[in-house]
Write a structure and sequence with these properties.
With 193 residues, the protein is of the alpha/beta class. It contains six helices and seven strands.
């Protein structure tokens, strides 16, 4: 499965700390990857090791305050793209343009947008995937099963209710570090208009 030395080392580290890697290769050179549930700061180091073990050049979006000195260079080096959530900046269009500008581009997004419980997912991942015409990978960090990875890829139909039902079914047995902080898998009714 993992080919590079870095991927083999990362996979060995996962095994050493009691985690298993789940992976189905992406169906093409570009995709949006949803990562859920996201309930703890521990998700980041597990996710970084998992990303290395997958040997997939995943980029990710994170709040801009994480990219300040002294950690900014580290987060950018790990594939981070800073987002200022306080400003409406046409992020969907900016990220769609990144897909157009690259031959290979994988973008990871935590649809809750926070580690705290939310009642609705942000719809940006859905809008980006539809605009860029790319599949959605269902990524997870499951503390219940001690598994991390991406093992399911979906082509979105454009019927958000049906697509979200499929996504909710996939995540039904995945548990975050703080399960009580994982909100329901759904969009606000007006989020795609």
């Amino acid at each position: 499965m993992p080919a590079s030395l870095r991927a083999r080392i990362a996979a060995a580290v996962l095994r050493l700390i009691g985690w298993r890697l789940a992976y189905a290769p992406p169906p093409g050179p570009k995709a949006v990857v949803v990562v859920y549930p996201h309930t703890s700061n521990w998700d980041f180091p597990i996710g970084v090791i998992g990303r290395a073990a997958l040997d997939l050049p995943l980029r990710y979006v994170a709040k801009h305050t994480l990219f300040r000195w002294p950690f900014g260079m580290l987060f950018r080096g790990l594939g981070g793209i800073a987002v200022d959530r306080r400003v409406s900046t046409g992020l969907v269009e900016q990220l769609r343009a990144r897909f157009d500008a690259h031959d290979t581009f994988y973008l990871a997004i935590t649809p809750e947008g926070t580690r705290s419980r939310t009642e609705y997912w942000k719809s940006g991942f859905y809008q980006i995937a539809r605009a860029a015409r790319v599949p959605v990978g269902l990524g997870f960090i499951d503390y219940g099963g001690r598994r991390v990875g991406i093992d399911t890829w979906l082509e979105l139909s454009g019927d958000a209710d049906a697509d979200m039902a499929r996504i909710a079914a996939f995540y039904a047995d995945k548990r975050g570090f703080h399960p009580e902080k994982a909100g329901p898998v759904r969009f606000r009714a007006d989020s795609l208009t």
